[in-house]
Amino acid sequence: MLRDLKVMAMIKKTLVVRDKPTASDLESRTDNQLVQQVLAQNDATAFELIMRRHNQRLYRLARSILKDADDAEDVVQETYLRAFQKLESFRADSELSTWLSRIAINTAYRRLRRRGRVVFFEDFASPKNEGDGPHPAFIEGVESEEPSPEFQMQITQLRSLLQEAIDMLPLEFRTVFVLAKVDGRSVKEIATILSINEQTVKTRLHRAKAKLRTNIGDAFEDIAPSVHQFDGARCDRIVASVLIALTNS
To answer: Taking 50 as the threshold, does the pLDDT of residue 209 lie above it?
Structure first.
């Protein structure tokens, strides 16, 4: 639930809950068509569908910057509030996901600045690999139809190690890595989101991968898409909080 009074105070317009259309009626529409539906009617159902389509991506992006799940969730909610208030400025010739991502980045950095936590680490301190289990680089077969409990435990441990290692990357490397390897975005799209050139994206990604490979081996390539997990409960919570803020203001 959003509790930031400054964020709530920026709400100048609200959504309208209608009996029709239903979510199923709108699912086939593109992002741009949903935006037009929201702009024309302030339709809550259309905006909810936009949120559900982009929740995971925005959460992972915010989590990569803030290194905290609750903070990331708050940032995603604030991102949607800010996006709705200035939705008229969205240009339909661009991708909605890119536009939302830029808002999320700015919102996350604003939160870091308020807390005095913007730190770009010059060096990467690899955490010690505790325990006597197999080195993550030798865990194979990430895809398994019937994984054993032991295998599942190994994957869980590796995911945890990778998430910790990602969190220890310098911020500029961390964000590029999550966008590329966790979220599956292209170099071109990342360059647009971060307002940097494509060669810089490639360089940062290469260096991030090199640091992670040194720490936990090559297995991170297979495990990366599963870090910063985003479950249905978190998705529902974000959507509900934003809808409450935008319909009860």
So the answer is: yes
